[in-house]
Design brief:
mainly alpha; 3 domains
Length: 367
């Protein structure tokens, strides 16, 4: 089928249809050029017919993208080799590593979110049937319910007590001039505490009204700081929504964390000929592999109701793949690669933990 399509498209490449100027970019070309050397468009002045249009459309669907095929094959089955080939100059053979990572990760989260939404809808449509219980079982459940209600009431009462104590305690008021006289960190902490105490007492959500009551300047920064009280309350009331908000930002978090992680590679492999950007490409290929396997696993795991494939990835396949990628790309001995493998894993988790805290804090600030 593909050969037939190519044969039909060859008619547009005939010498009689070739021009001396590219119709797309206006670059001068020779009659001998089948494609424009500047933009790669086919050199043809043949008027577009319905057959040509249909053949191009069908060809774009059926003809497999060789770059995507090479990227998937080498990324899955040749750890580190894809990066080595890419930095050596084989650029047209593979997809752009940065774009490919973002595409695969975003597609994974979109499919995963769609499957979760479908699963929730199915659960709502098929409610769990009622099970008949013996009097003893019903009595035990009622007793447990009473204990749970009592525990919940105690927690709520304790929270209300703490809130009441805070309300009876005098407001530690600081004027704008007093805050301005403090160092930046202390000034921000005191302002945040003051605004939070005021919010807890009066529940005024309008930042402009609250600032006017406190006799503070109605600046963009002050309004933003005060509005974070409502954000914290919103997160506490619906933490799952905030969790979903964070999950949707993970691809972009990893995209911005990768340059930080690349610093460790740059220092650890300083004697190698690779520059910082080439270490960064290696990291994006590793991240792309993880999301690619997750993408492959998400549908069967959803229907089998298991996380075995994902667990195998992080416990078995992931570490082995990372080790092999280090060995194939940097081409050092097994012992040296193993030592650096351990160090990079430790550095990754320490840096990742710190970056995660900053990421959550920044996300909460923008939520």
């Amino acid at each position: 089928m593909n050969r037939k399509l190519r044969d039909r498209n060859d008619a547009r490449k005939a010498l009689k249809y070739r021009g001396t100027k590219c119709l797309n970019c206006k670059h001068p070309i020779d009659k001998s050029d089948i494609y424009c050397p500047y933009c790669s468009q086919i050199n043809s002045t043949k008027q577009l017919s319905a057959t040509d249009f249909f053949n191009q459309f069908l060809s774009s669907i059926l003809v497999y993208d060789s770059r995507l095929r090479s990227t998937l094959k080498d990324l899955l089955f040749k750890p580190g080799v894809i990066t080595r080939n890419y930095v050596k100059g084989q650029r047209l053979k593979y997809a752009n590593p940065f774009r490919f990572f973002l595409s695969v990760s975003i597609i994974f989260f979109l499919i995963n979110g769609l499957l979760d939404a479908t699963n929730t809808e199915i659960k709502n449509n098929f409610a769990t049937p009622k099970v008949s219980l013996t009097p003893e079982e019903q009595k035990a459940i009622d007793s447990l319910g009473i204990e749970l209600n009592s525990f919940t009431s105690t927690i709520i009462s304790l929270a209300d007590t703490i809130r009441d104590v805070r309300k009876t305690k005098p407001l530690a008021y600081l004027s704008e001039a007093q805050l301005d006289s403090l160092p930046f960190t202390e000034r921000y902490a005191k302002r945040l505490t003051l605004y939070n105490d005021f919010y807890e007492r009066h529940k005024i959500k309008n930042a402009k009204v609250a600032l006017d009551s406190l006799h503070h300047k109605n600046t963009t920064f002050n309004r933003w700081v005060y509005s974070k009280n409502a954000t914290v309350e919103k997160i506490i009331e619906n933490p799952s929504a905030f969790g979903n908000y964070l999950i949707g930002k993970i691809p972009f978090f990893l995209f911005f964390y990768a340059p930080l992680f690349a610093c460790f590679f740059w220092l650890l492999y300083s004697r190698k000929k690779y520059n910082y950007l080439e270490h960064l490409i290696f990291i994006f290929h590793i991240f792309s592999f993880i999301f690619l396997v997750l993408l492959i696993a998400v549908i069967p795991e959803h229907f089998l109701n298991t996380s075995f494939i994902t667990g195998s990835l992080f416990l078995l396949i992931g570490p082995f793949y990372f080790y092999k990628a280090l060995r194939n790309f940097y081409q050092e001995s097994r012992i040296v690669t193993l030592l650096k493998f351990v160090f990079l894993n430790i550095a990754f988790f320490i840096g990742f933990s710190i970056a995660t805290v900053l990421f959550v804090a920044a996300s909460a600030a923008l939520y």
